[in-house]
Amino acid sequence: MKGRTILGLMVSLTVFGAWSLAVLAQSQRHPTTAEMQKLRQEFRQNIRSIQNDAQRADYIRDRRNQTELQNRELFVSTWSKVDSTIAPFVGSWSGWEESIKIYPSNVRGRVCIIVTGEGYGSFTIGSVSNGQILTNNGQVIFKEGNYLGIAGVYNNTPINALKIPLHSPKLIERITQLSGITEVKEKNRIIQQFNAAGCTDSLPRG
Asked: Domain of life here (predicted)?
């Protein structure tokens, strides 16, 4: 019976992973401040629920080694001296069947976001305002402790797009070594968008 329960959970999470990746680009507008307060509360409750569930807790376990932690912390601390608003978000955040890679750009307060999952990917731009990222696609990306959530408005309803929060950020990849996308044309298109938008995968100059 326990085996069936775990299998059912894995199937449902896989289906949700594919669904959440699809809806990320379909937000009708940014949630309002009041809507975000409620969504943040729901997100915190969801994190606690996962942490207290032995079957699900493993999905948000931090598997980074010391070198991975140090490399990301160095990158963030260096960028914080140049643009402290974006620095906490920069990194490659792990999720269920997907990840979000958040890069700095040469425009203050702006980040470049690449979502990858199940071999596919997408690119968008975001502006950091009041400690959260407002994307060009109408989503809000926000931090709660060591976790990252994504909110949007779908069918006129404000929702948290991810039931399994993003976590354990690592150092972002070089854009030429972008992983998680199997289609070469799609990868090249994202790299072109990345470069055209003034995004960077390097430490700030000077």
From this structure: Bacteria
pLDDT band at 17 (very low <50, low <70, confident <90, very high): very low
Looking at the whole model, is its pTM more than 0.70?
Answer: yes
Q: What is the pLDDT of residues 27-39, one digit of tens each?
A: 889 999 999 999 9
List % helix, strand, coil for the chain (3-state, nearest 5).
Answer: 40, 30, 35
Q: Is the pLDDT of residue 5 over 50?
A: no
Residue type, 205: R
- Residue 142 sits at φ, ψ, to 5 deg, of -140, 155
Q: What is the DSSP letter of 84?
A: T
